[in-house]
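U., I forgot to send this yesterday:
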Amino acid sequence: MSQAKLPSAIIVGGDDNALSIARSLGGAGIQVFALNYTRALVRYSRFCRWIDLSGNGHITAQTWATYLLGPQSNHLQGSVLLAASDEAIELIAEHREELAAKFTLDVSNPAAQLCMLNKLSTYRAAVAAGVPTPKFWVAGTREEAENLKHELVFPLIAKPLIGHEFSRKFSGAYTVAHHFDELVDTLDRFNRANVRTFLVELIPGPDDKLCSYYTYLDDNGNNLLDFTKRIIRRYPANMGGSTYHITDDVPGVKELGLALFRQVGLRGIANVEFKLDDRDGQLKLIECNARFTAADCLLAASGLNLPLFVYKRLTGSPQPQATGCRSGMRLWKPFADLCAYRQLHGMGQLTFAAWVKSIFHPQTFPVFRWTDPVPSIVNGVRKARYLWSRLMKPAKRDGDQSQSARTGQASAPLLAARVAPEVQTPSSKAGK
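Result:
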């Protein structure tokens, strides 16, 4: 197939992963379009063309569906449609037959993808597959929690069943409760917002016990590639988003991941995250994704250009056999990792010298590229505005700061998810 005849690609949703997909495909000479929320950084990339739906009012996933299924997108007929967010997966699963008549879709088992979107269903599937999980409880209300009070162990996580429904109304990806009163207050708040949750044990231990497995499953469920990585740090520690990743060969993670994927019949892109529980030496499920994730640029830097791999499979373009990825490649978020260092240093767990030594390596950055600088400039301006707004806020009372100063952690009110009505883009899952 000649380069001039290559079909275009449409990236639906996503954050840093959408930007990485655009760069991977656009850099290969493929015309890329981005369908996303207004503030998405991918709109500023020179490797894609922005689909502007701002004239349609407040943008939602339904706005995307209306555009894709309507006459406005007829000029893109035949394009490869790629999901970069949970909302996009849900959209494509719901309208798969109609979309398949107009666009080229990836191989998929929609029922399995929707199972992976529901975190409780994912945990139940893991149990059925013999994949270890933390303790979890089906308790989404104060009354249900009261009935299980004698079984619960703290700290624990109040985890939303559907992540993107939660992120429309609250910041973060979940809430940590350290005692029962905090838990029931959290459940009351979530129920008032009509957000469904269940409870999961918080696995103790540092964040470098977290690891992930990525693959691509063909129509017969065969894994066509393998990729594993570890987390080095997160912010806030033990509950926040990943700030530093490294590619590594993690024993056992592939086998557990494939057992879960095959239990539900997943097809296409598959990713699963585990944490090693030092109490019993088992890798235990954290969450699963059936789409491109925030670490996509790390895969590409390590030798696995996953968007191009998927695109070439769908278009029948020749491509080399997928091979192993290079170990020791790193993905670093400088600003967030500086915050992680400051917290860990305050807790007496990381010296400045050790932090500098850990980052003194060639790095891949989620946003910055010399060949595509505008997204990082926009991102930098936004961060500067955020910091300025924080500096201009009145200082907290000394009493409010005392606990965080002693422990290096956020105080309990800050651990609880807060209403964020002005959020325009649901955040990516933590740790991905």
